[in-house]
Write a structure and sequence with these properties.
Helix 1 packs antiparallel against helix 2. The protein is α+β, with helices and mostly antiparallel strands. It contains five helices and four strands. The N and C termini lie far apart (56 Å). It has a four-stranded antiparallel beta sheet, with helices on one face.
Length: 173
Amino acid sequence: MRTFSELEREDLLKALEMFAKNWLAHDGCWFLAAEERFGMDTAIELDTAAWARFAVTEARRIVSTFGIPAGGGLEALGQALALRMYAAINPQRSEWSADRRALRFFMDGCRVQETRRGKGLPDFPCKGVGIVEFATFARTVDPRIRTTCLHCPPDAPPGAFCGWEFTLADEGA
């Protein structure tokens, strides 16, 4: 039996994708268990609290592991977003505003919402959780970063998933 240290790059990438899918499946199983036990509103409240904690942990680990400069602004955030667990399983993209004062991030695919849509279910209303998750992640990378939701279920345009805009707060703010 081979160990991870013996795997070739292609197999390591397969393992990364598998781990990301397992992570997301666990998140979904946890949420469904909470929803069954406590109802949707309480499950979303618990999910929001969990993501507030996890976003800090994920951001700190990415910054530390990949040597992203502390307080590195929007450039550092762009690097960190590209290394989140989501990036291994959800197509995503970042784009800069013309003046490079804003970084916009879009999830072009979302396994959670695509699974729900495939089952004929409405989108999961993840906007509230997403606001906490993305704002916390961004502030952990650089406390000056401010986050605005451009769109997110249940308010996303047809066929779209979530979109976020990040800016740096004025030094005096």
